[in-house]
């Protein structure tokens, strides 16, 4: 059996489409959140900065399943957020997006934050301020162009992390077949059910996507 036949027979479209929708939605949200958040973290000081920075970084070091359980308690039908909305957010597409955003956000924020904390960014900001530029102008015309490679790299890293997220997705999405089974969870399901060819085909496909992202990141870092 050749590779094309193996992929055609063992790659279900529903998890791929769902994962694509989750990654696209979460990446857009991460982009909208990461740039202003990284700028604020890079320029502000005080206890609130430390608290927000810790909260953003936490998904990198906290076990995803444990974090998913905490979110489950928060967003579930009996949780404070679930009660606020009047219905449970879990086991739905929004739950998958929330898991993906939280998992990938640190990887989007940290490269931008590091770039904006660099001596070069500080000097550019000081020069622009001396020239009488407003904070908005400095952010849009100075800092964003300076950090553009870090923004692209961070968003790509976040997208890759969102694609591979399992722990929080499993807890919040529930792995409901045909509804919340992303491609990563489908690999888990295939292995659990002994469908090793299916698991291998999906792993190969995800690997190709991940390698493509790495090549783009490599080109960005080399330019």
Description:
The protein has 223 residues and is mostly helical. It has a single domain (14-182), classed as Orthogonal Bundle (MetI-like fold). 81% of the residues lie in helices and 0% in strands. It is built from 12 helices and no strands. The mean pLDDT is 88.
Rounded mean pLDDT score? 88
Taking the sheet with the most strands, its summary is: none
CATH architecture label name: Orthogonal Bundle
- Going by helix content, strand content and strand pairing, the class is mainly alpha
> How many H/I helical runs?
12
What proportion of the residues is helical, as a percent range? over 70%
Please tell me what the overall shape is. globular
Number of strands: 0
Tell me what portion of residues adopts beta-strand conformation: under 5%
The CATH homologous superfamily name equals MetI-like
Helices, strands, pairings?
Layout: H1 3-10, H2 13-43, H3 47-61, H4 64-75, H5 80-85, H6 93-116, H7 119-130, H8 135-146, H9 148-164, H10 167-173, H11 183-192, H12 196-222
Task: Fill in the keyword field for this structure.
0% strand; globular; 12 helices; MetI-like fold; 223 residues; mainly alpha; single chain
């Amino acid at each position: 059996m050749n590779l094309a036949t193996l992929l055609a027979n063992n790659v279900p479209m529903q998890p791929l489409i769902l994962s694509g929708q989750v990654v696209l939605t979460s990446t857009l949200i991460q982009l909208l959140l990461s740039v202003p958040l990284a700028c604020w973290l890079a320029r502000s000081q005080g206890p609130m900065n430390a608290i927000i920075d810790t909260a953003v970084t936490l998904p990198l070091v906290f076990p995803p399943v444990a974090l998913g359980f905490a979110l489950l308690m928060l967003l579930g039908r009996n949780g404070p957020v679930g009660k606020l909305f009047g219905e449970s957010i879990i086991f739905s597409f929004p739950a998958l997006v929330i898991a993906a955003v939280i998992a990938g956000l640190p990887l989007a924020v940290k490269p931008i934050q590091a770039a904006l904390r660099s001596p070069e960014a500080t000097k550019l900001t000081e020069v622009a301020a001396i020239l009488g530029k407003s904070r908005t102008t400095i952010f849009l015309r100075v800092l964003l162009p300076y950090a553009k490679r870090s923004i692209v790299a961070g968003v790509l890293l976040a997208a890759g992390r969102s694609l591979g997220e399992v722990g929080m997705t499993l807890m919040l999405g529930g792995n409901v077949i045909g509804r919340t089974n992303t491609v990563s969870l489908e690999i888990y399901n295939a292995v659990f059910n002994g469908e090793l060819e299916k698991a291998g085909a999906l792993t190969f496909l995800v690997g190709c996507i991940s390698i493509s992202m790495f090549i783009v990141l490599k080109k960005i870092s080399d330019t």
